[in-house]
TrEMBL record:
Domain Alpha-D-phosphohexomutase alpha/beta/alpha: 54-168, 218-320, 330-443
UniProt biased composition (Basic and acidic residues): 9-20
TM spans (from-to): none
Family under the similarity heading: Belongs to the phosphohexose mutase family.
Disordered: annotated segments: 1-26
Cofactor needs: Mg(2+)
Highest taxon in the source lineage: Bacteria
Name the record gives this protein: Phospho-sugar mutase
Length: 555
């Protein structure tokens, strides 16, 4: 018998066993249709059974489809049963709180998780409707839950969904209370998931308790209190939730804080899992905020703000001469927020990641404030410093900001948007802007220009090959300067860092998408107070650096 036939027969048998255990009639019908199309559907079937979605520090994330290598009710049932079993094995007591966004399947997955928790004898608290991820992270702390589950795929394409886990103080400790899981919890939960027996034998209990709007009102009240009560509120803001779940909560927070309610892009105001007006629901992607800029121009807004679909990220656009607008880089928003908090006298630990700008480090050094740098991801940022100093602010360049760690120990696009508005309104009252403040920081610390080389691949082997290539043939010079250090973070992380006297490159695979990313930074001193000239030199240098790294990666 040919090997190909044997493989198809094996996968067909796996699929039939899956069908017998799948609790969802719709996905059983979907998978049966794939079986009926054999042998033509063999590649599709093989991909669905190439392995289970792995539960890591980001939880689960994958395409909505039948089979173990997809997000579906069977996979969620197994994940929820494993999580609940792991919580019990750790001696964790208290409720499991569950949130969900407006993507396809999110509510169903959340409700199934609640019934599995109650079936195991654990109270389940379900958020009252599709809500932002930071509301779930807040609820874990507010309700003293043993853990939290958020069903979301954040800014992934419409066909994806995901499943993130947060731990409460009991199992996460003081630094991890309401934060995403880190090792070894992820491996422990993954092992518990794989140990789950037949899904038909997983007990389902009652639907749990649906929380009231008082929890959301509490979050809004607390977020509004993050900013100073006596600052200027004269600011016109254009806003988009990008078809996600942020609009109602963000507008409520702005109103509670005394700001005019932002104008919302009408075509993107309501949650829509198809994300019909954007090719990719991520404010970082080209074209994603075109409608927002149009609204900002039409309403003569002072500022334009976008959340990603689950509202844990915040993008900010500013006027760039006439009717033009420029999206600020995540690093620019990060240092603006940090500088604002420092000027307000907020003392404590400021933190960012190895791929973010080094400007925050320079600011903290000059102002005598503690600083720490972590691996990428807010699960690490909120644990920065190991508890030696209280964290007061953390950010990552991918539009994630934590301005109130005592409320939400994760990135929060709502509180970040409100804090940016506070800063912008204060500057407007002085006849100045966010770009003026950025120029002040550049004049003091030099232009820290950052950019990113991001390559999406169809075959993950391309990423592995590129990482192997940069390790085997590490550049010895960049921008005509010797590479002073070449740091390889294996086995802790698949990251390579190259540094020269004025440049830094951090190369790593994306943790959530099939992308290889190279984070580029050039530091250009400002001479004679001429910030524009320094920015021009930095832009030219970063362009050359991008070309050199692309060549070195052969991508």
């Amino acid at each position: 018998m040919p090997a190909e036939t044997t493989d198809i027969d094996d996968i067909r048998e796996q699929a039939r066993r899956w069908l017998d255990d799948d609790p969802d009639p719709a996905s059983r019908t979907e998978l049966q249709a794939v079986l009926d199309r054999l042998p033509g559907s063999a590649p599709d079937l093989a991909d669905r059974f190439s392995g289970p979605l792995t539960f890591g520090t980001a939880g689960l994330r994958g395409p909505l489809r039948a089979g173990p290598n997809g997000m579906n009710l069977a996979v969620v049932t197994q994940a929820a049963a494993g999580l609940v079993g792991w919580l019990a094995a750790q001696g964790g007591t208290g409720p499991l709180v569950i949130g969900y966004d407006a993507r396809h399947g999110s509510r169903e997955f959340a409700e199934r998780t609640a019934r599995i928790a109650t079936g195991a004898g654990r109270p389940a608290l379900l958020l009252p409707r599709p809500l932002p991820t930071p509301v779930l992270a807040y609820a874990v702390r507010r309700l003293d839950a043993v853990a939290g589950v958020m069903v979301t795929a954040s800014h992934n394409p419409p066909q994806d969904n995901g499943y993130k886990v947060y731990l409460g103080a009991q199992l996460g400790g003081a630094l991890g209370a309401g934060a995403q899981i880190v090792p070894p919890a992820d491996a422990g939960i993954e092992a518990a998931i794989r140990a789950v027996g037949p899904l038909t034998e997983v007990p389902l209990g009652p639907p749990g308790q649906v929380l009231g709007d008082d929890l959301v009102a509490s979050y809004v009240q607390q977020v509004a209190s993050v900013i100073a009560p006596d600052g200027s509120r004269d600011l016109a803001v254009a806003y988009t939730p990008l078809h996600g779940v942020g609009a109602a909560v963000l507008t409520a927070a702005f109103a509670r804080a005394g700001f005019p309610v932002p104008g919302i892009v009408p075509e993107q105001a309501e949650p829509d899992p198809e994300f019909p007006t954007v090719s990719f629901p991520n404010p970082e992607e080209p074209g994603a905020v075109d409608l927002l800029v149009g609204l900002a121009n039409a309403t003569d807004a002072d500022l334009a703000i976008a959340n990603d679909p689950d509202a844990d990220r915040c993008a900010v656009a500013v006027r760039d001469g006439g009717s033009g607008w420029r999206m600020l880089r995540g690093d620019e928003v990060g240092v603006l927020l940090a500088d604002h908090l420092m000027r307000r006298g907020v003392k404590g630990l400021y933190a960012t990641t190895i791929v973010s700008s080094s400007l925050l480090r320079a600011m903290c050094a000059a102002r005598g404030l503690p600083y720490d740098e972590t691996l990428t991801g807010f699960k690490w940022i909120v644990r920065a410093g190991g508890g030696t100093e209280p964290l007061v602010f953390g950010y990552e360049e991918a539009l994630g900001y934590c301005v109130a760690p005592e409320l939400v120990r994760d990135k929060d696009g709502i509180s970040a948007a409100l804090t940016v508005a506070e800063l912008a309104a204060g500057l407007k009252a002085q006849g100045r802007s966010l770009t003026d403040r950025l120029d002040e920081l550049a004049a003091e610390f030099g232009v820290h220009h950052t950019d990113q080389l991001s390559v999406r691949v169809d075959d993950l082997r391309q990423i592995a090959d590129a990482m192997a290539r940069i390790r085997a043939a590490t550049p010895t010079a960049l921008l005509g300067q010797p590479v002073d250090t070449a740091e390889d973070l294996l086995p802790e992380a698949d990251v390579v860092i190259l540094r020269t006297a004025t440049a830094r490159v951090v190369i790593r695979p994306s943790g959530t998408e099939p992308k290889l990313k190279a984070y580029l930074e050039v530091v250009e001193p400002v001479t004679g107070g001429d910030v524009p000239a320094a920015r021009t030199r930095a832009q030219q240098a970063i362009t050359h650096l991008r070309t050199e790294i692309a060549t070195a990666l052969n991508l």
